[in-house]
Amino acid sequence: MPPITDPDEKVVLITGGTSGIGRETALALAERGASIAIVGRNRERGREVAREIDTRNGDGWAELYVADLASQESVRNLAAEFENRHDRLDVLVNNAGTFRHRRTETEDGIEATFAVNHLAPFLLTHLLVDMLVESAPARIVTVTSELHERGTIDFGDLGRENDYDDMEAYAQSKLANVLFTRELAERLRETGVTANAVNPGFVPGTAFTREASIRGRLTLGLFSILPLPFTKNVEEGAETVIMAAASPELTDVTGEYLSDGEIAESSAESRDRDVRKRLWDVSAGLVGISPEYPIR
Predict the structure, then answer these.
(1) Active site residue 170
(2) Model pTM?
(3) Burial of 291 (0-12, 13-18, 19+ CB in 10 A)
């Protein structure tokens, strides 16, 4: 793994930071002196992680934001609260994710997997992009999955109302992460803010599958204890995320897909310029913002 630059006095916001890869990323960056804001739904667990961060980051600080990323109102409140407390943001890690066995809709009437995995980071990044630009050099890291290669953006049925399949819905959302990252990087060129997507690998020990079927959870639980060559533990899964957030070798790298600690090739559809621009416009409409951001 490449050396990590010293993020002394850096401010990092990590969604899904109370467990799994997000927690490991938070602790690793805290050990290097960064101040960490973690976002999670469980207040008690979040406070425990924040206290752990406090023991590692010296003069830095740690704080918890309780938010439900399935709710656009909650995402907006999160961004507003962060902006009220702070005047800078050096790294935004869009890490939180979900996998839903059954099709459910959010309070905004949007299929939950697409809402949490794609629209939440899309909206949160929009709300905080001015702060990131003002803090440049800054970085945006969005956690995706190798399963994006199995995904396709079905503009006729983004909500998967017809014949819902949990894996197809998840793969579509992870493909959306890569498309979002590539378009965002293009729009942020010359601002000093980079945007990259990261595949952490198959990490069955994470909590994002809590909405999966019972059989799915049992299978992943078995994978987490067996020495299988294609699985990673949480610490290994976090390595490339940490690298994307802090490695000096990636200071000027933007619009890339990172996997196993290096730049990798993502799927053909994830590199389709027309698809990424159309998805951007549709996503902006679904969260009620102008598609012109971050040029505002």
Answers:
(1) yes
(2) 0.90
(3) exposed
